[in-house]
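Bacteriocin adenylyltransferase
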Amino acid sequence: MCNSKIKPSLIVLSADDDYCLPLVNKFCIEYSVPFINIGYLNDFSVIGPFYIPDISSCSYCTDIGVIKMPSSSMIEDKIILANKDYQAPSFFTNNAIASSMAIIDIMFYFGGEYERINSLNKRIGISNHDFSYHFINIKKNKFCNCNKNL
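C-alpha cells:
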C-alpha cells in the first residue's frame, strides 16, 4: 500500500480537483479502505456515498454527476474552456453543514452501526437556503470495480 505498513482506518475526501475522486475511489477499492466524500454543490452541502468495502456502493456504482463524458462538439469544447477555472465559492455555511453531516456518519461507522449511516448507498445534501434534505440513492452495482470480490 504505497510503501506504508499502516492501513488507514478511513479516508475523508474533501477536494475540488477533478482527478481526486477517481484516484481516491480507485485506491480505496484496491486496498479495501473505507472512505466518505464531503463537499458542496453550489448552495448544497453534500456528503456520500460512504464507501465500506464489500458492504456499500462507491462513487462510481452509478453516474451521479461525477463521471466526465468526453466532449463531442466544438461548442461543448468552448463551453468547457470558458468554464474550466470556475469554482463554486466555498464559505462557512457549506463547510459547516457538510462537516456536521459527515461527522455523524463517521461516528456511526467507527461505532459499527452501519445501518445508521445516513450516506450509506446514497449521496445526501442539505440546501443552505431552506435546509431541505435531498438524496440520490446509489445502488451497489454488481458490475462496478468495487464489487470485484463478489
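The radius of gyration is 16 Å.
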